[in-house]
Task: structure prediction
Amino acid sequence: MLRSLRNIGNLTLKELRAIRGDAVMLVLIAYVFTAAVWLVSQAGSTEVRDLTVAVVDDDRSQLSARLIDAIRPPLFRAPDLLTPEAAQRAQIAGKEVLVVSIPPDLEKDLRAGRGGAVMVLVDATAVAFAGNGTSYVTQALAEAASDYLAPGTGAESPLNVVVRNRFNPNLSATWFTAVMQIINNVTILMLILSGASLLRERERGTIEHVLVMPVHPHEVVLSKVFANGGVILIASVLSLVFVVEGAMGVPIAGSLPLYVAGAAIYVVAVASLGLMMASYTRNMGQYGLLVIPVMILMLLLSGGITPMESMPQWLQILMRTVSPTPHFVAFAQAVLYRGAGLWLVVAELAAMAAMAAVALALVLRRFRKLLS
Amino acid sequence: MGEQIAARIAGLTHRYGKLTALDDVALEIPAGCMVGLIGPDGVGKSTLLGLISGVRKLQSGTLQVLGHDMGSVRERSALGARIAYMPQGLGRNLYPTLSVRENLDFFGRLFGQSAREREARIAMLLEATGLAPFPDRPAGQLSGGMKQKLGLCAALIHDPELLILDEPTTGVDPLSRRQFWDLIDRLRGENGRMSVLVATAYMEETERFDWLAAMNDGKIIATGAPAEIRVQSGAATLEAAFIRLLPGAADEAGVELRPRAARPDAVPAIVAEGLTKRFGDFTAVDHVSFTIPEGEIFGFLGSNGCGKSTTMKMLTGLLEPSSGRSELFGEPLKSSDMTARQRIGYMSQGFSLYGELTVRQNLDLHARLYAVPPARRAARVAEVLAEFDLGEVADKMPESLPLGIRQRLQLAVALIHEPPILILDEPTSGVDPLARDAFWRKLISLSRDRGVTIFISTHFMNEAERCDRISLMHAGRVLEVGAPAEIVTRRGATSLEAAFIACLEGELPPEEAASPPLATMGAPETRPPSALARALGRAWAYSTRETRELLRDPIRLFFALMGPVILLLTMGFGISFDVDRITFAVNDQDRTPESRALIEGFSSIPQFARQEDFSGPDALSRRMERGTPTLALEIPEGFGRDLHRGTEPPEVSLWLDGSMPFRAETAEGYASGVLALLESEITRGNDSAAGLTFTPRFLFNQAFRSADAMVPSMLMLILMLIPAIMSAVSVVREKEAGTMANFHASPVRRIEFLIGKQLPYLALSWIAFWVLIGLALTVFGLSITGSLPVLALAGLLYVTATTAFGLFLSAFTRTQVSAVFATAVIAVIPTVNFSGLIVPVSILGDSARIFGEAFPAAWFQPVTVGVFLKGFGAADVARPLAILCAFAVGYVTLAAVALRKQER
Result:
């Protein structure tokens, strides 16, 4: 037992030296956990901003001028005033996401109590923006209309709705993407590092060299998991504390030690998964072809980009069974945003630990076959 | 011809970075004879051969081959088909998954031979080399000797005047080696004008050459006929002569095997009984038995792939035998037995220590893993460093050391725990004679002075003669065991080599050993085809070969065909902006018809899914921390009353889970829609503004389904990523495997090579395109509102552009790993972010838009979306299609410019 621990320690040290010797990888790790986290979260992918709007104004009244005025940055670009035909062409060419069509005599009709309808034509191929863009533009136009037509009545709305956004008061996308970006980086780097650490030894023949020595396969596997996982764990936690919380000012609601514990389990699970896939391929070229689709699936179907509940039920169940990432995303959201305690996330932790155990068992079973 | 000189070299210098491989070489190589280039590893032999064959680019000096100046592109290409070059490494320029015939057919096509000519020449060469019985065997499954014969056939397919062979017999058994040289002799007898230039590490072989040039350290140190060189240095053999020629070699002592004090009563160190190892149907080791007494040096001979390494791995416990058993010092060996491993020192084929650790760190790590006591560890490492003369390089990285020193380091590592048994798998392969002698002096001292039992495999006959006993293995079985002298006598042979050849010949099936008379050379001459036809033929040769290889590589085929399907299915289902079933919970403190009407407003639309009510803020907090509900609604007491009274509007509280902003925004949008409806019902007709309604109309995607819009865009992403990776890997794996040498050495042009490699991937990607369209129409229920032929054409142009993009990137990457990851990263960033996948191009900033439009994806996305959803026809997409065409042509051109026809 003691000798086993010593072997793991010695081999872990060797793996750490290998990582230190790979300058390109170190630069990559440093980059993705600092600059890349910041860049990606600034890109803010699905937040409604700078939406292109065209207005077809057939009314040309005071009211329509007020309505056009209401379409303002930052949510919208300054609207283009177009003829109906030009607006249609522009929308087909994908140049305008929204077209607001104000019918003739709108103000006159409204003042006469005849009612009137403003049409909002939405390019529904821009699915991420069409829905929210429409509700924002409708809201803005309705407010402008009631301010102009019935000044002072706005306060007399029959309902007083108080909306409170919990965990992220301004619904800032940066808060969300920054943390998700760290998780994505952990997944990507862990898969590459752990797979490479096994295949490098296989391509060079050092793996059989180690196995001739009085060293058990599980000591070799665990040392790889600990060394690579440790480096990524530390880098990701530093990134969370100094880049996301420190530099970007995203508040972390929950307990950092709890997050670190969960991240440690996740890192072990992904490292084991990487080693398992690597044990089925012969060289890094093959591993790359295998790992890229897997990586894309793990990232996209984790709940870290679009909500899990939007996926079909069977896919949710499938992903929760084969991938540790949905569990970690749920765990991280619960701990970091909602300040959840251990008892709320224990199921996710158990699921990740179980996956790590299964993957490790498979790696060990494959290990002897590697040599033939 | 009348040319007496095959190659005239003057002032030739070649550098790799700071390293000088050739230093002002001047040499005239005679034509029409066998010329040997001899010298240790890494002295510049391969570089010189590469330059003469035109595979490497001339840096400085002059070089004329067959009277043509190799510095001039025109003269070099005129010469192309008159030289044949077989690079170093067993079958490295062959395609392992292609059969013998397919390999040769490919080479024939590269040299523009007609089908009839190819057939005739292949039949003749296979007959001559004894490969005729195995035309359909994949090259990867041939034995080492057969691989070399196939390589020779490939080199001779176009009947060259100058044949250049770089270490053709390294790692080949003695019989195959002899057959190989006999074959060359017969071919030369038939075609007297052919000059042969060979580099070799086997000094015995060079005795049969007409003329030799010895090299050391980038310089020619002696030239002349073998006899002349022997006389010059006053040595009996060429090997001895060569060692004397080297500077500083004079004081090296020879290798002498001292007699061993036999102890017949002692327990034998190694016993193997009926050891057998099967891999599936293939029996790698077949009932091997031997007994090795303590302190003996036991040599293990045999060709590559005959089961030597497998036997050694079973003895170390790395592999579990299928049947049979082995004992170390009388104790049975089990693979899980850790104490047995403590007794073995093992050196595997090729260098296999950690390149990322220094020499000292490597030794220290092994000392720790072998549990050398901490108190003794430092002393032991120092001891070994001194003993193996590694003190000076102790803190260097092994990669930076010459092969001879690395191999000494490996032996030092194998001995760090002072094991009584050493198992050494071809430790001296590729090491020069001088270093080999030093290594053997070490081994003999270990055996004789310390009683270490040494089990060693080798290809060198002079090393075999230094063993106490040897065994010869062939096809998994041991054919002979005994002392070298004993075997020679038993077989009635003059030398050990001859004894082994006799022994192997007894084993081989008659057709392999036979040497049929050579058919007449010179195929029927046909009218030469036009230049264009020849160019197309060469490109087609690459296409057919690539297709065959691809069809036989399950991992790549799976990636190419199933990758897109899996990606589309999971992303199509997974990336959805349809926010459905938002969970909401209610705390209704009012319980009036009005409050129930409000709740009903939420539960009646499918976007909301109601959960169990909550009782108060604390309960809600706990539930929201767990992640559900996303939306909570609190209706205070008196809500109904206040609503009717109308003096003070009642307050309704909404809580939203903001941890996923997109979902929260959408939920809020739906909620305000529900509330607005309710308000307008209450206040109907109160003011003029209320008469104003806003009617959203969703164009192109009336149902506003995420999949309808996302799936067409995903085609763009998937058909960028996978085809680009595939084509990039296809070129880079040739660089890695060494088959790129065929491109360098044959008359194929860069553009022919690239287009030939691109075609199969283009076809495969277009098939994948149709599969994706099929999935979009069936699984995702999309329909095409525009013109399908237009979409098909756009798809074809797009995959042409993306495969060409991969070719372009392949010019800058050297390993498959970097090709895969670099292509993925470079392809994904613009495609995902700046090509309209999620964010429409129209709302991007100017710089982001321009960046996106610099890649083909941004031009394909509007076409797919347009044809699927907006009813686009040919007129709507003319411009994007033209631009896609330009991308395809542009990338291929750039790739051709970046690709090097010659190595540096």
Notes: The CA atoms of residues 110 and 116 of chain A lie 6 Å apart. Strands of chain A lie at 53-57, 80-81, 98-102, 116-123, 160-166.
